Amino acid sequence: MAASGALRSRPHLAPGLEFGSRRVLRFGVALLGFQLVAGQALALGWQTLAGVALIVAGGIVGTMLIGDALGVPTGRRLLIACGFSICGAAAVAAVDGVVESNEEDVATAIGLVVAFGSMAMLLLPSLATLFGLDARDAGAWMGGSIHEVGQVIVAGGIVGGVALEIAVLVKLTRVLMLGPVLVALSIRARRGHLKISGTRPPLVPFFVIAFAVLVVLGSVLTVPTPIRSGVGFVQEFSLAAAMFALGAGVDVRALRKLGARELLLGVLSSALVASLATSLVLVA
User: 93 and 242 in contact (C-beta within 8 Å)?
Assistant: First the structure.
């Protein structure tokens, strides 16, 4: 991603912002793996795991096809597709670390994730009640539909109890799909199907390997709660710092030129992911 934003145009700030948007970003994504316990995801059952895989794969492919029909540029719709289908802004930033994106594409994708995820966070609990879903079904649907982990926690908390627990488990299972998706994108980039971010990446980027290793360690080791919480704080701080560095490279004037295509893609992608997430209700 080129460093062409207002803050990055200042020579004394550019190196730090570049470091934050690359190194710190990848460090934060790797630490995200330590927060995931694979055993909890497996306990949901193979039907739920298959449903989550359907949400992620179907959401990405469907959003890419819809975006193509709407005329949204490839890089932009890829970031939107991964953000809406996996884990919001963290997925957008992680994908930006593998394939080449510009600042406006990143800012657009993150803005859409925040806007539509926040709307889903407030809307889905009411819809779950309207549809007569019990707490477990409501939690599964919300965890499979809403973009950000924090947004899922808020929505699950509105319903409460079992719904919150199931929603978070399903959402974290979606986050686990980030690793395989990044590997797939890296392979496509090496084959020339996507623009590479920076120099030619390894077959599996190091931070993706670190992510997978930390998932395993966090799952098999008995980690004291204070340590896990401390790692979680560092992970959240790292991603927040990386988001700031990414945002610092945004040319706000370019964002004002955005048309209705990206907004329509956000609407349709949100509807697609929520529709795919109904498969979790059927097996919950």
Answer: yes
